[in-house]
């Protein structure tokens, strides 16, 4: 995936990625179980979403002893960048840099992830 363009992500896709970022690799069942209370999806819906995300280049799917394991192909900052941009523009009506500075005061992202997020947003704003 080209780092110069921020990925288009729905909230559901971001939530799937968030589950996978926490552990590195997950099965559809593991992701489904963690999102069941939030979305109330059928298992097949979760599987369809994850397969579409694989086609979009957001996830990688590999077989391991007859089970498919999914891992994220984009970093957490790359996933967050689109949401931060939207939040800054439409909700706060402010600069994305101010939203990024909020992350610097939390433990939500590492310093390296904050730097990557800043760089992605700067690149996207140059367009």
Could you list some keywords that capture this structure?
2 domains; 127 residues; Arc Repressor Mutant, subunit A; mainly alpha; single chain; 3 strands; elongated
Describe the 3D structure.
The chain is mostly helical and 127 residues long. The protein has two domains: 11-72, Orthogonal Bundle (Arc Repressor Mutant, subunit A); 76-125, no CATH class. It has helices at residues 11-23, 28-39, 43-55, 76-92, 96-104, 111-125; strands at residues 25-26, 59-64, 67-72. Strands 1-3-2 form a three-stranded antiparallel beta sheet. β2 and β3 form a beta hairpin. The longest helix has 17 residues, at 76-92. It starts with 10 loop residues before the first helix and ends with a helix.
Topology (elements, then pairings):
Elements: H1 11-23, E1 25-26, H2 28-39, H3 43-55, E2 59-64, E3 67-72, H4 76-92, H5 96-104, H6 111-125
Antiparallel strand pairs: 1-3, 2-3
Could you give a short description of this structure?
This protein has 127 residues and is mainly alpha-helical. It contains 6 helices and 3 strands.
CATH topology of the largest domain: Arc Repressor Mutant, subunit A
Alpha-carbon Rg, integer:
15 Å
Query: What characterizes the major β-sheet?
Result: 3 strands, antiparallel
Report the top-level CATH class of the largest domain. Mainly Alpha
By CATH, the architecture of the largest domain is named: Orthogonal Bundle
Q: Which structural class should the secondary elements be placed in? A: mainly alpha
Q: Give the CA-based shape.
A: elongated
Number of domains: 2
Helix and strand string, N-terminal first?
Answer: HEHHEEHHH
Q: In what order do the strands lie side by side in the largest sheet?
A: 1-3-2
State the helicity in percent bands: 55-70%
Distance between the termini: 17 Å
The overall pLDDT, averaged over residues, is 81
How many E strands? 3
Q: How much beta, percentage-wise?
A: 5-15%
């Amino acid at each position: 995936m080209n780092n110069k363009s921020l990925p288009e992500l729905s909230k559901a896709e971001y939530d799937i990625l968030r589950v996978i970022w926490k552990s590195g690799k997950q099965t559809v069942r593991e992701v489904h179980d963690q999102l069941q209370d939030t979305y109330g999806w059928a298992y097949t819906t979760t599987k369809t979403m994850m397969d579409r995300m694989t086609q979009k280049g957001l996830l990688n799917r590999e077989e391991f002893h007859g089970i498919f394991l999914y891992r994220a192909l984009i970093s957490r900052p790359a996933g967050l960048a689109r949401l931060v941009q939207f939040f800054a523009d439409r909700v706060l009506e402010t600069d994305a840099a101010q939203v990024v500075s909020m992350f610097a005061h939390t433990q939500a992202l590492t310093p390296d992830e904050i730097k990557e997020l800043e760089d992605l947003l700067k690149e996207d704003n140059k367009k």
